[in-house]
Specification:
Shape of chain B: globular
Strand content of chain A: 15-25%
Structural class of chain A: alpha+beta
Number of strands of chain B: 7
Largest sheet of chain A: 5 strands, antiparallel
Largest sheet of chain B: 5 strands, parallel
Structural class of chain B: alpha/beta
Radius of gyration of chain B: 13 Å
Low-confidence stretches of chain B: none
Oligomer: heterodimer
Helix content of chain B: 40-55%
Chain lengths: 750, 130
C-alpha cells in the first residue's frame, strides 16, 4: 500500500471546518459567565437597593413614632403650665426634652403670641415665627420636625409646640446597614454567579468542549467518542455524535479497504499510474511505479506538467499539454474522444543525458455527471524497448549491408568495390581541390556536381546507404550553388564552408564503406590489395620461377600465396555447429586473416585446420556443465592464428579444453600397439588407429587423423607438434621443417 | 496519412535537408525552403510555419511580418513558430511576435516532439475557438 494514500476526511466535517469566518471566537463559557454576572449583579443591586431603602424607611418610621409619642407626652405635660401661664414650667418641660439628647430644637408658642414662649436649642432661620396650629410632621435628610397643637383638656387650643429631632443616629445606622447590605449582597451575588458558571461549565460547556475535541480528533482521522452521562439535550448531542463517528469510521474503513484494493491493483500494473484533476493537479492516488518513475516530484504540490516537463516548463510541449488539460475539464465526457487524439503520446525525461527515458503516455477520463472530473495517466517506460529496437535496427542494417557487401564480393570480387572506392576518393579529392581555391566558376560547380552524381550512383549500386545519403546531400548542395551562380549571385564563405564540410562527410562515408568491406572480408585487409588472376597463368608462373631464390622467385611465390582467412571460410560457421551438435558450445577466433600462406601449405591447410578444429570440439572442449564446474567460461574458445616468422609462416591451432589425456592415450597405445610405451605422450596422438574415444561417431573415434595430417603437412614441407597442458588446453603448432622425435609411423599396429 | 503539413524556412540547405528527412520519416508533410520570396502561396496549404531565427543576410522578423500579413486573408491562418538552438530566445518567441518557439536545433527527435506539440496546440486552440 502506498503510504501517501490519505485517510478520507468526512466531507461534512471538512465543510464544517472550512465554513465561512464568523468573527473572533468567544467562548460560550465566558459569554455565559458574563451574562450570569450581569443578571445576578442586576438582581443583587435591586434587592440591595430595596433593602437599603427599606432599612432607612424603617429607621425613620421608628424615629417618627418615638418622636410623636414624646411630643404627645410633652404637649400633655406642657398644656396645664401653658393654661395657667406658668412659663417656668413650660421652660422646664422644654429642658426635660434635652435629656434624650436627640432634640436639636424645640419651641412653644402661645396661641395668641407670634414669638415663642420658650425655646430649646438654637432656632433655625425663620424659626421664631409661630407655625400654624395644625399638626404636622416634616422629615428631612437630617431631622424630623413635629408640630403639635397644645390643647386644654376641654379641647381649646392653648398654643403650639415645635420639636425637631436629629436623625444623625439613624443616618449612622442607615449607613452601616447600607454598607453591610452591599457587602453581603455582592458576596451572595458573586457566590451565586460562580455557582451558576460552575454549573454551566460542568453541565454544558465542559461536555461541549469534549465534543469539540472529539470532532477535531475525528477530523484529524483518529477514532473519537464522547462519554455521555447526562440524560438531557447535551447527552443526546453526545449520543448523536458517537453514532455519527461510528458511521464515519465504518465508511472510512470501507473506503480504505476499497482504496487498498485499488492501490494494490495499480501497484501490480506494469505502467506508472497517476491521477490528476483540473489544472493538472495531482491526486494523492498514484501507483508505486509512478513514485519510482517520478522520484524527484513533490506529490503534494506538483502538477502533471511538473512530472512530464520538469526542466522545460515553458516549452511548446508543456504548453500543448497545459492547453489540453484546460480543454479536457471544460468539455462533456462525450467529447473526450476528439481531444484524446490531441494528447501527447510520448515524452522524454532527462533528454540528452545518460539517464534519458522514453515514456509512452495514455490518458483515461473519469466522469462525474457529464463532465470529466479527473484523468488517469498511464506511463510506460519504453526506454529499454526503444533501445532494443534501435539496436536490432542497427544490427539489421549492419547485417543487411554486410550481406550486400558479400554479394558484391561474390559477384564481382572485392577488388571491384575497392576500385570503385578508389575512384570515388579521386572524385572527392577533385572537389576538395576546387573548394580550396575558394572561388567557384560555374564550370567548377558543374564538374563537382557531375562527380557527386556519379558517387551517388555508384554508392547506390553497391547498397552503401551512408555514402549514398552523404553524396546525395553533396549533390543537392552543389545543385543549389550552381543555381545561385547561374542567377549571378556570389557565393559567400559560409557556402564554401558548408560544401567543404559535406565533402568531408562524404569522405568519411567512403572510409566507412571500406571498413565495412574489410570487416566483411574473410581475408581482412588483404581484400584491399587483391586482384583476380587466372589459376592456370599463376601455376605457369610458379612452375617457371617459383623455385628461384632471387627476387623474381620471391615475388612469384608471394603472388601464389593465399590469405590465411581463405582457408577458414568453411570453419567459421562449422565449428560452432559441430559443438552444438555435441551438446557443447564453441567460438572460433581467427588472428592474422590477411597473412599470406605459401602455396604448398595453403593447398593442405583447409584440410589440416578442419581436422584440428574437429579434434578440439570432440576431444578437447568440455561440455558446458563441466566447464562451469571447472570454473571455465561456458563457451569454449578455439583459436586459429597465422603469423609471419622470418620469410615463412607459423600456424597455431589452440583450444582451452582439457588437453591431451596422457593416461588414456598410454592405455590405448599399450593395448593396441605393443612397444609404443616409449613414445612421448604428445606423439602418441599421431599414432594411426589410436583414439581415446570408445565409440565411433560422425566426427571422430576411428583413430584416423593426426597421423594423416602430419603426413599431408610433411608432403608440403611442413611439420606439426602438439603442446598440451592437462586441464588447460592443447596447442597444435605447424611450422616448416619440423621433424618428429619419434617415427610414429613405425609404431602403427599392423 | 500525414501527421501535419509544415513549411520550414532556413537559410542552411544542410539543415533543411536534415529537417526534411527527420520530419518526413516521422510522418509529417514538409515543404522546406531557403527562399523567403514567393513562399506566401504555400501558406494556405500548411498548418505550421517554422522560421529560422538567425538567417545571415535576412531578417527573420521581416519574413515573419510579411508572411503574417499574407496569412491574414486565409480562413485558417497557420501558426508561426521560431526555430533556434537558443532556449532563451525560444522562450521569448511570443515577445518577438511568433506563436511559440522550437528549440534544441540539431536534435531531430526533440524537433519531431516539438513540432507534434505545436500542431496539437494549434488544433486544440482551433477546436476551442470553434
Amino acid at each position: 500500500m502506498n503510504p501517501s494514500l490519505p485517510r478520507t476526511t468526512p466531507p461534512e466535517l471538512a465543510n464544517a471546518a472550512s465554513s465561512a469566518p464568523r468573527g473572533r471566537f468567544v467562548s460560550l463559557g465566558l459569554r455565559l459567565a458574563i451574562g450570569t454576572m450581569l443578571l445576578i449583579g442586576s438582581a443583587s443591586w435591586l434587592v440591595g437597593y430595596h433593602l437599603i431603602e427599606n432599612t432607612r424607611d424603617r429607621l425613620i418610621e421608628s424615629k417618627s413614632n418615638a418622636a410623636r409619642m414624646l411630643v404627645r407626652v410633652f404637649s400633655a405635660n406642657v398644656a396645664p403650665a401653658l393654661d395657667f401661664g406658668d412659663d417656668e414650667a413650660v421652660r422646664d418641660a422644654l429642658e426635660s426634652l434635652r435629656a434624650g439628647g436627640q432634640v436639636v430644637f424645640a419651641a412653644v408658642w402661645k396661641s395668641s403670641a407670634s414669638a415663642p414662649l420658650a425655646t430649646l436649642g438654637s432656632l433655625p432661620v425663620g424659626g421664631r415665627a409661630r407655625p400654624a396650629l395644625e399638626e404636622s410632621t416634616v422629615v428631612s435628610d437630617d431631622a424630623i420636625t413635629l408640630v403639635r397643637p397644645i390643647k386644654a383638656p376641654g379641647g381649646a387650643r392653648l398654643g403650639v409646640a415645635t420639636v425637631r429631632f436629629s436623625l444623625a443616629p439613624e443616618n449612622a445606622r442607615y449607613r452601616a446597614a447600607r454598607r453591610n447590605i452591599i457587602v453581603y449582597t455582592s458576596a451572595l451575588a458573586m457566590a451565586i454567579a460562580l455557582l451558576s458558571i460552575g454549573f454551566v461549565r460542568l453541565q454544558a460547556v465542559g461536555p461541549l468542549n469534549r465534543l469539540l475535541d472529539a470532532v477535531r480528533s475525528l477530523q484529524r482521522g483518529r477514532s473519537a467518542r464522547v462519554r455521555v452521562r447526562a440524560h438531557d439535550e447535551i447527552g443526546r448531542l453526545g449520543d448523536a455524535f458517537n453514532a455519527m463517528a461510528s458511521a464515519i469510521e465504518d465508511r472510512e474503513s470501507r473506503l480504505a479497504a476499497a482504496n487498498l484494493r485499488i492501490q494494490e491493483l495499480l501497484d501490480h500494473l506494469r505502467q506508472a499510474i497517476v491521477v490528476f484533476g483540473p489544472g493538472g493537479r495531482l491526486d494523492a492516488l498514484h501507483s508505486r511505479q509512478a513514485e519510482a518513475m517520478f522520484s524527484d516530484v513533490a506529490w503534494g504540490r506538483a502538477t502533471v506538467l511538473h512530472l512530464l516537463y520538469p526542466t522545460a516548463p515553458e516549452s511548446v510541449e508543456a504548453e500543448a499539454l497545459a492547453s489540453w488539460i484546460e480543454a479536457v475539464f471544460k468539455v462533456p465526457i462525450s467529447e473526450f474522444g476528439t481531444l484524446e487524439a490531441l494528447a501527447p503520446k510520448a515524452t522524454v525525461l532527462d533528454a540528452g543525458t545518460a539517464e534519458e527515458r522514453h515514456l509512452s503516455l495514455d490518458f483515461i477520463p473519469i466522469a462525474e455527471g457529464e463532465m470529466v472530473s479527473r484523468v488517469i495517466m498511464l506511463c510506460d517506460d519504453e526506454t529499454d524497448k526503444l533501445r532494443l529496437q534501435r539496436t536490432v535496427q542497427r544490427q539489421e542494417l549492419e547485417h543487411s549491408r554486410q550481406i550486400k557487401a558479400m554479394r558484391r564480393l561474390v559477384a564481382g570480387g572485392g577488388q571491384l568495390l575497392v576500385g570503385v572506392l578508389d575512384a570515388i576518393r579521386a572524385r572527392l579529392a577533385f572537389c576538395e581541390e576546387r573548394i580550396k581555391k575558394g572561388e567557384f566558376e560555374l564550370t567548377d560547380l558543374e564538374h563537382m556536381f557531375q562527380r557527386a552524381h556519379s558517387i551517388k550512383g555508384e554508392a547506390r549500386a553497391f547498397d552503401l546507404v551512408l555514402l549514398e545519403r552523404e553524396s546525395a546531400l553533396l549533390e543537392e548542395h552543389l545543385a543549389d550553388l550552381r543555381l545561385r551562380r547561374k542567377g549571378g549571385h556570389a557565393l559567400d564563405g559560409d557556402a564554401t564552408l558548408q560544401l567543404g564540410l559535406q565533402v568531408l562527410l562524404t569522405q568519411d562515408a567512403v572510409q566507412d564503406a571500406e571498413d565495412l568491406l574489410v570487416k566483411a572480408s574473410p581475408i581482412g585487409n588483404a581484400i584491399l590489395d587483391q586482384i583476380t588472376v587466372r589459376r592456370q597463368t599463376l601455376g605457369e608462373a610458379v612452375r617457371l620461377a617459383g623455385s628461384r631464390s632471387d627476387e623474381l622467385g620471391r615475388v612469384v611465390r608471394e603472388l601464389a600465396a593465399r590469405p590465411f582467412g581463405e582457408s577458414l571460410l568453411y570453419l567459421v560457421e562449422a565449428i560452432p555447429t559441430w559443438a552444438e551438435q555435441m551438446g557443447k558450445r564453441a567460438a572460433l577466433t581467427v588472428v592474422g586473416r590477411d597473412v599470406p600462406i605459401p602455396q604448398q601449405l595453403a593447398g593442405v591447410l583447409t584440410s589440416v585446420l578442419t581436422h584440428l578444429g574437429r579434434n578440439s570440439v570432440v576431444h578437447g572442449l568440455e561440455s558446458v556443465e563441466e566447464r562451469q564446474r571447472l570454473g571455465k567460461e561456458p563457451v569454449g574458445n578455439i583459436r586459429f592464428e597465422a603469423r609471419r616468422v622470418g620469410n615463412d609462416v607459423e600456424i597455431v591451432a589452440a583450444d582451452d579444453g582439457r588437453g591431451l589425456d596422457s593416461r588414456a592415450l598410454r592405455q590405448r597405445a599399450t593395448a593396441d600397439s605393443a612397444g609404443a610405451t616409449d613414445v612421448p605422450p604428445q606423439e602418441l596422438a599421431f599414432l594411426d588407429g589410436l583414439s581415446t574415444l570408445s565409440e565411433v561417431n560422425d566426427y571422430a573415434g576411428r583413430g584416423v587423423g593426426l597421423g594423416a595430417v602430419r603426413e599431408e603437412l610433411m608432403a608440403a614441407g611442413y611439420g606439426i607438434r602438439l603442446e598440451s597442458t592437462e586441464g588447460v588446453g592443447l596447442r597444435a603448432v605447424v611450422t616448416r621443417n619440423f621433424q618428429p622425435s619419434f617415427d610414429t609411423a613405425a609404431k602403427v599396429a599392423p | 496519412m500525414s501527421r501535419g503539413r509544415i513549411l520550414f524556412i532556413d537559410d542552411s540547405l544542410a539543415v533543411l535537408a536534415r529537417v526534411r528527412v527527420a520530419l518526413s520519416e516521422a510522418g509529417f508533410t514538409v515543404e522546406a525552403t531557403d527562399q523567403t520570396v514567393g513562399i506566401a502561396r504555400h501558406l494556405g496549404k500548411v498548418e505550421l510555419v517554422i522560421i529560422d531565427y538567425h538567417m545571415p543576410g535576412r531578417d527573420g522578423m521581416v519574413v515573419l511580418d510579411s508572411l503574417r500579413a499574407a496569412a491574414r486573408e486565409l480562413p485558417e491562418p497557420p501558426a508561426f513558430f521560431l526555430f533556434t538552438s537558443d532556449e532563451t530566445i525560444s522562450h521569448r518567441a511570443r515577445a518577438l511576435g511568433f506563436d511559440g518557439g522550437i528549440d534544441r536545433k540539431g536534435d531531430d527527435e526533440a524537433l519531431v516532439r516539438q513540432v507534434d506539440a505545436a500542431l496539437r496546440l494549434l488544433r486544440i486552440r482551433r477546436m476551442r475557438k470553434a
